[in-house]
Amino acid sequence: MTFLQAEKKRQTVFKLTSNYFTKAARKPGLYRSKLQPFCLPIEEAHQNLFPPIRDAAIDYFSKNQIVWHSGPLPDMPSNHLCSSQVFCVNFLFPFFDKPEALKSLLLLIFPDIHRILPIENENQYIAFEWIGDQNYLNEKPSLNNERKRGLGTTSIDAVVLLETTSNEHQFVLIEWKYAEFYQNQYLRFSQGGTDRSLLYKPLLTSENCPIRKDLLQSFDDLLYDPFYQMLRQQLLAYKIEQIHKENVQIATVLHLYTNKNRDLIKVTSPNLQAIGNTSFEVWKSLVKDQRLFKNFSIENLFASFSIERFPDFFGWWDYIKKRYSWITK
Fold it and tell me: Of 221, 216, 88, 54, whose CA–CA distance to 156 is shortest?
């Protein structure tokens, strides 16, 4: 049984037995034209979010015209209980306007944090589905040539801006992984016929590119997920450093994932299998500077947070522990 299959069963039980859902939400939900027990009814999709953040998160996505992945209704989250985007929002959104708590959460990964700096506005410290204010990668949007957060362009699940103890500004691009898994699928051409090798190769071949090209047989080695995702994220971080966005001296890609999902870390690109046993090992070998890429388990991240110091987070802590119960095992 895959991790995703196990999660579908466990989330179904959680939906049927937890007090976090109403009676109406316990029914099977329509997803891709089929009624599924691990989905909420479409009209109850909002219940996929932690109740105290529900209205604020939906309002933030709506105001910023952010697309919810597989959202069944406009401005509503996915009704799939195993949604990675929903998990990311459930976990991180409570820290949206709480910089001290967010600093405490991230200290184990970035021990030289001095403080968390605002992003997007003065009272906000996390941005979701971030694409930046310009087309850094010269991508061609898939929706009427309009760049949209969460759809048709490289969107980062969450970003934060740190000030380090050495007075550097460090931009952190967070990729959130939950129940994803990847096939050995070659992704050179998009559904619209775009040759992705032509789109990103100029950046990959630039003089200061952060990727070690000497370890690649060809650019095509990177055109398999998750490496294709990692490439775009790393190139985006590279561009942010180049233009000194927000006075950034360093931009780091951070993958947060669950240790329980062994299906996630498979090395899908045939020519990269000799470089490492997992996708993370491969990518760390390919990135020239180890400060530019980090991976860290959600289990360790959750365990490192001091709920005793931040008792206002107890409701969130209890919800995460119960809904994603593998997080403490």
Answer: 88
Helix (H) or strand (E) holding 218: none
- Number of domains the chain contains: 1
Q: Are 107 and 309 in contact (CB under 8 A)?
A: no
- Please, are residues 155 and 145 in contact by the beta-carbon 8 Å criterion? no
Q: How far, in Å, CA of 158 to CA of 75, rounded?
A: 18
Amino acid at 23: K
Give the pairing type, strands 250-257 and 293-297.
parallel
Question: What pLDDT is recorded for position 201?
Answer: 87
Distance of CA 168 to the CA centre of its chain: 24
Q: Which domain holds residue 193?
A: 83-311
- Residue 183 in domain: yes
Q: Which residues pair with 255 in a beta bridge?
A: 175, 295
Burial of 256 (0-12, 13-18, 19+ CB in 10 A): buried
- pLDDT, residue 143, reads 62
Which tokens go with 87? 């998990």
Q: Cα separations (Å) of 183 from 152, 199, 269, 319? A: 21, 22, 9, 32
Task: Report phi then psi at 306, rounded to 5.
Answer: -85, 95
Q: What angle do CA 78, 305, 9 make, to 5 degrees?
A: 35
Nearest alpha-carbon partner for 70 in 62, 82, 60:
82
Q: How many other C-beta atoms lie within 10 A of the C-beta of residue 229? A: 20
- Please check whether residue 43 lies inside any domain of the structure: no
Structure tokens that stand for 246 in this block? 């927000």
Tell the residue number behind the tokens 């600093």, with chain if given: 103
Question: Which stretch of DSSP H or E encloses residue 101?
Answer: helix 99-106
**Closest to 253 in 3D by CA, of 298, 291, 222, 227:** 291
Position 8 in a domain:
no
What pLDDT is recorded for position 197?
83
pLDDT mean values, one per 10 residues, the chain (329 residues): 96 97 98 97 98 98 96 95 98 98 98 97 96 89 79 94 96 98 88 81 89 94 96 96 85 97 96 96 97 98 97 98 96
Between CA 88 and CA 108 the distance in angstroms is: 19
